[in-house]
Amino acid sequence: MEITDTARSFGISPEDYMLPSRHLIRMVDPNGALLPTAEQGTEPGHEYPIPDDEVLVQAYRKLVAGRRINDQNSALVRQGRMAVYPSSHGQEACQVAAAACLSEGDWLFPTYRDTVAVISRGVDPMEVMTIFRGDWHGGYDPQREKVGIQSTPLTTQLLHGVGVAHAARLRGEDTVVVALCGDGATSEGDFHEALNFAAVFQLPVIFFVQNNQYAISVPLARQTVAPSLAHKAVGYGMAGERVDGNDLVALLSVLERGVRLVRAGAGPLLVEAHTYRIQAHTNADDATRYRDDAEVREWLAKDPVTRMRTYLSGRGLLTGDLQSQFEQEAEEVAQALRDGMNQESAPDPQELFRHVYTVPTPQLAEQAERLAEELAREEAS
């Protein structure tokens, strides 16, 4: 089922299928009220049903945990327990939805800011945070978890995701890849190469762009004059869509349909989520130098956690007891992070040599031996 067939199944032209809906897909407004269908931004070929109640409640459960994880990790940085932490405070709905839409055998490729997505996928929180305290390894096994390692290089994860999707296709595996990136990544050459390759080979990849308005300090208007980042999709011969990145209901619906379509062979998909990074780029950044408080306050009023809590409460799906349960579970994760990060780990200098080559070179073996002798002499003295 290629793009032409997919468009025909929706009763629209391939061009109308590839172009994003004329209006942002949004189901719940910032006040937590369900919008009338006519105001959800949908149109023929771009219609999205409300997810099941249980899906919404469990996604909110992870949303509460994600907010607590972000705040706890930011505190651990200030306490000197982590070297750096790129907070996704305000973007948690995107990350929860990205993990929720995948099946067990699918892959997630995160950016350095997508800690909440990785934990929501089921990876142990302490394993996820290992790399942020400056350890030499990524903390978790990517093959076991079906999650790429978080790393600082920009956009490389998109190429890795495309490679995994291509390999899975060659092996005949039923695998979908969701590869996350930010708006700044869309200005990188790797972005072009990944999307072009995925489109040419019709790979089952969703490129999920979290447009948080800034590439560190560079606003979107200084990166592109395209109508939207989702409009870039049509240039590669794939479909694009725009969604409110602070509306968890809309995100779940758009990504669920996207996964279903790319799994069926409709080709790759570019989804742009409009959201906002409430806190600084990292603890080393001073966001007040390039944006003002009024802009931040405007986005605080669109907070995804508050919006989803109000929506679920209004529908009777979230009681006070259930909210307390979710908050208690989130606090237990935060406590585990505090306990784990407060444990001092003794470094082993010999690890410098163990993972350089599969078979150590004679020079490396000699250096390791000399270090061992020096350490032994130091201990004896």
How is this structure best described in words?
This protein is α/β, with parallel strands linked by helices and 381 residues long. Helix content is 45%, strand content 8%. The protein is built from 15 helices and 7 strands. It has helices at 3-10, 14-18, 53-78, 92-100, 115-120, 125-129, 142-145, 156-171, 189-200, 248-263, 293-300, 304-314, 320-341, 351-354, 362-380, and strands spanning 107-109, 177-182, 205-211, 214-215, 218-219, 239-244, 269-274. The protein has a 5-stranded parallel beta sheet, sandwiched between helices. A two-stranded antiparallel ribbon has the order 4-5. Helix 3 packs across helix 4 and helix 3 (53-78) packs parallel to helix 13.
Q: Main β-sheet: number of strands, strand sense, barrel status?
A: 5 strands, parallel
User: How many individual helices?
Assistant: 15
Tell me roughly what share of residues is in helical segments. Answer: 40-55%
Order of helices and strands: HHHHEHHHHEHEEEEHEHHHHH
| SS elements, strand count | 7
**By helix and strand content, what is the structural category?**
alpha/beta
* Arithmetic mean pLDDT: 95
The stretches of 5 or more residues where confidence is low (pLDDT under 50) are none
Q: So what's the oligomer here?
A: single chain
Please report the distance between the alpha carbons of the first and last residues. 73 Å
Q: What amount of the residues lies in strands?
A: 5-15%
Strand order of the largest sheet: 1-2-3-7-6
Shape call:
globular
Radius of gyration: 22 Å
